[in-house]
């Protein structure tokens, strides 16, 4: 039987391939060796918003500890809290690196609390998913999906698209649009399916208004707890959340799919603290996260790697993700300023147009 490559082998192969792509493999290899040595000298990397259970960060922290002797501690918090922490602590920084939603990467950079670092796999990250100076870049994506409880929704009635929702007999749960990025992106995804975009959420709001008028909009939040209790018939979730919930509860009980008529693809990015006490360890952590081995770790946690087109996932890991052909109709946010404006206006619009129609 052919021996499978170790994660360290995959990591080093990824770095070598990227160095060759840069056109000066010797210099790139020297730079990476120097970064590794500096990271080991610092000996630790402290993160925020990167807990073990989320997107299998545990796999990466374990690798960095066992292979490079980097100690690690995480404090879980929201994207906004992470940025506020960097800004408040400044030179007394207790965190070196964080993981924030895509919309928060530019915010962190504009507030001057990040430092740039372009990993050796930089060229394989899509332009829409990175800052030109390397202050932020998505490590993994999230696309809005449906999670369907097959015990409560008949196969013949199960939705494959947003348009299918209009004629269904089940309730649809999207969560709190005023506070949850997942729910807000759900409205945007619906808008995209009806020819809207980040500048025009009206088509998405119209769909959910129809569901409310039909008495088919559920105000329950689609979480692992509500799904397990059978409180959700059809939920609107990030794909990685839906896949994780499905596998944790019962893979036979739920279907997870990307709506065929359109969705939005976003994701999460590392940000390196400008004031980091262990800046080289933070940069090396980002390097590892964007390597083949790091991307496989994320996929093991059901998060679709940003370099999915360039990384060969082991079959058992690929099985944890949705097939690539389901993503044919997903679109990235190309106008971040418009989305920021639209998402800020969304809670009031949701209350005035959708909630008032609840039956």
Mean pLDDT: 91
Helix/strand order = HHEHEHEHEHEHHEHEHEEHHEHEH
Number of helices: 14
Low-confidence stretches: 1-10, 12-27
Overview of the molecule:
Helix 3 packs antiparallel against helix 12. Helices cover 42% and strands 16% of the residues. Strands 1, 2, 3, 4, 5, 6, 7, 8, 9, 10 and 11 form an eleven-stranded mixed beta sheet that branches. The protein is α/β, with parallel strands linked by helices and 359 residues long. The protein has helices spanning 7-22, 25-42, 57-68, 79-89, 104-110, 162-165, 181-193, 202-213, 224-228, 239-249, 279-289, 292-300, 315-318, 336-354, and strands at residues 44-48, 71-75, 97-101, 137-149, 172-173, 217-218, 234-238, 254-257, 263-272, 304-305, 330-332. The chain is built from 14 helices and eleven strands.
């Amino acid at each position: 039987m052919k021996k499978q490559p170790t994660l360290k082998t995959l990591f080093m192969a990824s770095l070598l391939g990227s160095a060759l792509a840069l056109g000066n493999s010797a210099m790139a290899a020297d730079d990476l060796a120097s970064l590794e040595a500096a990271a080991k000298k610092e000996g630790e990397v402290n993160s925020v918003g990167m807990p073990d259970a989320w997107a299998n960060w545990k796999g990466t922290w374990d690798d960095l500890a066992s292979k490079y002797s980097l100690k690690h501690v995480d404090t879980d918090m929201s994207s906004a809290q992470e940025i506020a922490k960097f800004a408040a602590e400044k030179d007394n920084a207790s965190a070196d690196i964080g993981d924030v939603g895509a919309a928060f990467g530019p915010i962190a950079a504009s507030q001057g609390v990040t430092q740039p670092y372009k990993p050796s796999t930089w060229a394989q990250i899509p332009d829409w998913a990175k800052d030109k100076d390397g202050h932020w870049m998505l490590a993994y994506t999230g696309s809005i999906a449906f999670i369907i409880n097959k015990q409560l929704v008949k196969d013949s009635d199960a939705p494959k698209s947003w348009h299918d929702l209009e004629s269904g007999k089940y309730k649809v749960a999207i969560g709190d649009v005023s506070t949850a990025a997942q729910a807000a992106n759900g409205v945007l995804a619906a808008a995209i399916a009806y020819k809207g975009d980040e500048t025009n959420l009206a088509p998405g709001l119209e769909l959910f208004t129809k569901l409310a008028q039909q008495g088919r909009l559920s105000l329950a939040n689609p979480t692992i707890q509500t799904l397990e209790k059978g409180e959700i018939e059809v939920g609107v979730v990030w794909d990685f959340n839906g896949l994780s919930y499905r596998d944790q509860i019962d893979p036979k009980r739920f279907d997870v799919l990307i709506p065929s008529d359109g969705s939005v693809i976003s994701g999460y990015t590392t940000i390196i603290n400008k004031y980091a006490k262990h800046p080289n360890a933070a940069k090396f952590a980002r390097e590892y996260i964007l390597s083949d081995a790091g991307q496989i770790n994320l996929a093991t946690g059901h998060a679709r790697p940003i370099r999915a087109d360039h990384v060969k996932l082991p079959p058992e890991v690929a099985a944890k993700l949705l097939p690539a052909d389901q993503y044919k109709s997903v679109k990235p946010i190309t106008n971040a300023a418009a989305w920021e404006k639209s998402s800020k206006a969304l809670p009031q619009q949701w209350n005035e147009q959708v909630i008032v129609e609840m039956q």
